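Tetratricopeptide repeat protein
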Amino acid sequence: MNKKIILALFFSAEVLIPAMAQVSYRSDLPVSWLERGKQMYSVGNYVGCTDQLTRYKSLSDDPRLIEEADFLIAASAYYMRSPQALSLLQQYIQRYPASGNLIEAQFMEGNVYFFSGKYASAVKKYQKIDIDRLTPDNQEEYLYRTGLSYIKTDRIEEAKPCFSALVSVGKKYKEAAVFYNAYIAYTEKEYDKALQGLYKVKDHAEYGIPASYYITQINYAEGRYETVIQEGESLLARHPGNEFNTELNRLVGESWFRMGEDAKAVGYLEKYVAATAKPLRNSLYSLGVALYRTGDYSGAVKELSRTTNKNDALSQNAYLYLGQSYLKLGDKNNARLAFDVASRATFDKQVQEAALYNYAMTIHETSYSPFDESVLVFEKFLNTFPRSRYADRINDYLVEVYLNTRNYNAALTSINKIKDPTAKILKAKQRILFQLGTQYFTNNEIDKAQREFTAAIALGNYDKEIKAQACFWRGECKYRNGDYAQAAADYRAYLSSTRETGKPIYGLAQYDLGYALFKLRDFSQALEWFRKYVASSPSGQAATLADAYNRMGDCLYYNRQYAQAESNYAQAQSLMPAAGDYALFQKSFMAGLQKNYQAKISGMNRLVTDYPQSQYVDDALFEAGLTYLQVGQREPAIQSFTKIIGDFPQSPVARKAGLQLGMVWFNAGESDKSIAAYKQVIEKYPGSEEAKVAVDDLKSVYLEMNDVSTYADYLKSLGGSVRYEASEMDSLSFLSAERVFLKNPAQTSADGLVKYLQSFPEGAFTTAAHHYLGMWYYNNGEYEQALPQLTAVLQQNDSPYEEDALIRLSDIQYKNHKYDEAISTFKKLEIKASSTENRLAARLGILRSAYELENNEEVIIAADNLLSDTKLSPQLSTEARFYRAMSALKSGQKDKAVADFKILSADARTVYGAEASYRLAQQYFDEGNVSAAEKEINRLIDAGTPHQYWMARGFILLADIYIGKNDNFQARQYLLSLKNNYKGEDDIDSMIEVRLQKLGEN
């Protein structure tokens, strides 16, 4: 209770009535007005007095009597409590500084301030007064009002002598002096002295009730809770409307709380909290704890949350109880946050110990800590409280945490601190290394993944299954890096060390081993493992099974077992008709090898019709054309070759088709058409091997026509665009430089190629020389030197080196952030690519470059192209989908973006999945769907992710959600947890500070 408020209740207006006096006067003289005024003043007729004396002043010229009249007029205004009283008194004091009434006027001036509650101003006036010059009655008034003004202005020491004097000599204010002396003793915690005085006035009409309340306050302060309850409840019953009752409810409630009667405490404390706008934090804490103990956990959270706005011991205790309340409510996430805050405070070591233990256990039970707390918090507990009664239990749990944590790096650091790890610890370490490897692999960090899998394997057989799986995944890493022999060895190691034949990974190992052997061109062994995979794999894996049948067909084809190959291709096509273009092509090709030409033609034509977007359409047309020639059907052959040139002019097959047309027309005796066909190849593809063949074939046509001069003129017109002849010196110089370079690629051998280019700038082998140099510089990371060499290669269209040059040039442009140039080169590569791998690389390059340029339309098209490939790896599929989602979001296609984000967010192990989950939640929040946003972020927290930046952004978003709900406590919890646990050096810190400042903290 505010002491000043209490004291205000004891103040009552005083009416000062002067002694009455009898005066006589002559009504016919000016002085008679004065005498009548004085007589009216003496009987308290201040209005009449003022009127008479004002009239007198207008008639008189006697300064002495006018001074007396001015005093009486000011005094009348004072006694009437007139608004003009203060100004009249101040004018009088200023005008008559030597007046005999000066002290009384100054006392009145101070009293005006006192009566209006301006106690500081009253004190200033009272301090100027010599008390000995006041009348005895005024002296008592002076002491009381001066003392009370001191109390009102918190100048207790100066108030003491005033009330001490009144206790000794006072009459009217003696009881008041006893009360205020007791009050002063109460404020100075001299409770025995205070009680002596308070009991003296306990039955006083004016001071009895406040004295009783102060007695109750003292009993509470001295821990006499039973007395507080007894007297407090009695006071509440006897004085139900008293202003002290709000505070009294608090005292009684706190007393019941300290006596362990929580149910009784709740009722009184709730009344107190409801009746005051700013309840004391201690009482909110007591109420929250009492509610917790009586099972009202939601109520406990509500009240305890109001006590945590300061960094002190009370907040530390409150957070501990908040954590327990949240646990009872099943909200482990908020429980973890509360225990975290309590465990970081050091005001109360016992509370810190309990909070840290509960924090550790909550993390352990949820099997996840958003910001890598799991291992670290157990270590912190053992380091901070090594002799804790929980220490043995924590040690046991630490091993379990090693096995369950997702903070693999922290777990490894912790284990590596152990000097003599047990077998149980080493088993946990082996599992952690394996999990860390899979995490790196999921995020396409292949070299790091291989390192961790190798470390897991090196630990031996602590966990045989983990060791076996590490062998498989290391094989995957080596396969990705093109080390097929070592990949095959790892796959074999896995298959030989596990009996889990029914597991998907076992079948996948068979399939991958088949692929590794296929890459090594060990087709017989590859065929065996693909067959094992097909025999053991469920029919539901149609896409992979179809691919295995295709590879089996390839193996049989390379082993010249064409009929069996055809059968396997047919099986592949039946399993995946929608993606059966390759199988259909190969099946038809096998039919041709078995001289079933009509079946080959039929199959190739069917591919063109059924799979118009297939990358094999141009090859199918070409094979159909060749087969038509074999069976003597010239016209459909010509149509096939012509269609290739018209529809696929950039395809390498188009050059071959041109040669075939030239030959067909020549054999048909159509020399002009033959010449036109050969010239088209020469002029459209001047750098190609087919152009050189066309030059030789064209020579045969002109010889047949006996028109060698025309042929010679044509060659001259080419101007060197087709280098069909090389001088002996040219050839010898290049071949010598080439042999040295290929035998030992080094700077000195590369210099030999440079010298060749300087000697033969127009030589027949300049493109090849530029190719070798471009590849040398590129492979050594000398991109600036590689650029002009690769550019020179591309100046010779359709050279055998064009595709390689496009691959390297596009990569350099991308690495140099020249994304516009890179897109153009990637698009050329997409057209020129002769392999699926290079075509995929081109499309991926287009996607990434367009994303960097924020060309949203181009990104979406590129992503669609990639995602249409049924054989796209999961990692690339995830990347393409993410870029498409972000570009759709930026271009206002929110529904499309959300659809992709939902798919991506299912796997938060990848950086794309983690960001997608956050973006999805942010989108919900921006749309006003707060519940969906909160649900999505909580799902991310529960699932966990190694990508802590996006987890941190999720926490920031949760804080924004709670700020929007006016739940500042929850917002503060998330922000403080993030501030304490997030270790990244980025923009998260500034986001936290902005929001804490908004909440009134920093």
